[in-house]
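Model: Ready when you are.
Researcher: Fold this.
Model:
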Amino acid sequence: MRFATRGLHVRYPVQEQWAVHDVSVEMVPGQVTWLTGALGSGTSTLLLALAGLAPRLTGGSRTGTVTADDVDVATISPLSHGIAYLGPSPALQISGISKSVHDEIAVGPMNLGMPREACLQATQGALHRLGVEHLADRAPNALSGGETQRVLIAALLATAPIAWLLDEPFSALDRASTVRVQRLLRELADDGGAVVVACDDANIMLDVADRLLVMHRGRIALDGNPRELLAGDAMHALGAGSTDAAELARDAGVTAPRPVDRAALLELVASRGVRGH
């Protein structure tokens, strides 16, 4: 699925300024596109607009166009069109009608009209792929934040979407779960899916993303290779964070381009003859 916006503006109710301002961009299948920026930069609003949920659910107004495979997203139901959206507050997306995690994950396939056997297979496959089989009999409202996040990703996976729009999907995950979801996103893109992720943690996205879009005051300010942008100064100037390695190098007075991962930082330290104690 190919997303495209042309002259997109989105404004929330009772706000004078556009949350997204004159954005024209394409996001293509087979890539993980990473959105980041300072607080209030517009990444979450752009995801909502791509899903057709802003201003449909949020209220406010939209001008310009947003299409998924040339279809206006305002005219479709995201999930039935193959678009999976995960918001920044996963608990709000729990259906409230299921007594168990297994049934919660089955809600999407059932709503899409999958045959019973296919629905069961999709549910079991999603439980396994997200490593949440042990939660199958638990009540959805009894899960921790990280468990809820993984269960909702599994619920979306069970519907076999061809596009993913994820807002801070790692925010409540432990290290093991983070690695599992990183691997999943990479696999989804490698299988031809369009994956768009808003995430503030550069350390997590460094080896996942193919493309980095940095937003600033509702606009796309930077668009390029993640490693190249993280190694430079432009993101810092816009209030967007880099990796721990790049920040350490910056604090030590290293000029751009800086190392962006631990291995490259250690190599730089070794090349300068600095020894740790």
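Researcher: Now this one.
Model:
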Amino acid sequence: MTGKPKASRTKGSSNNNSKKKLFVGAGAAAGIIAIVVAFVMGGSTNQATTASSQDPIIAKIAAPSMPGAAALGSSSAKVTIVEFGDYQCNSCELFYKETKDQLLANYVNTGKAKFLFKDFPINDVILQPPNASSLAAEASYCAADQGKYWQYHDELYNNQKKEGIVWVSEDVLKQFATNVGIKDPAQFSQCLDSHKYAGIVKDNYNLAMQLGFNATPTFVIMEDGKQPVKLVGAYPYVEFDKVLTDLQNGQA
């Protein structure tokens, strides 16, 4: 892919896909940790902080949604790449099909970075049926219960349809479970029917909103002691490579 990256956006959001520094500050108010997040184009500000695993918001971004949905790659990797995505987002599918494999091959599988996915189901209120993106995300965690999170994640993107075409349903999601080799389909069905993991999906959505995100895919690339970088849109591999190289060289 070349040229301007593509992203799915919520209504009223900006058309400016961008690579930005992520500035995070934390303060206490009324006994609650209040996270103030601002996104700026380069430059510097006295509100800027570097990424630290001790910062509550950084720790939240970097934490797997559940044990069965652990990040791909070595737990000791210095860099964490977090994708906030929607399973009905065509731009997320574009990243999945055109960029992700090369990113995994060159950075994740070599131990330089780990890759994590967080749900940001912004298409719940845009596409039909309502809440289908959240339902697909819930299904991924039901698959995680049986050790098939990433296989199910891949199955969703491999079977995604163009936005506007209805393809997510409970029956389809249950068939996907069979496709990836879920050993106990009844357990998966019970999990999905009960909306066991609706809370996890909602928490991820709320985190993305708290961070001010309004498009999918949105990526946060972090290394302890350095300023996190945000990428918005289905950037080609070369852009990820540049950000990651700059992080390694202390230039990000």
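Researcher: Key takeaway?
Model: Confidence is low (pLDDT under 50) at residues 10-17, 21-48.
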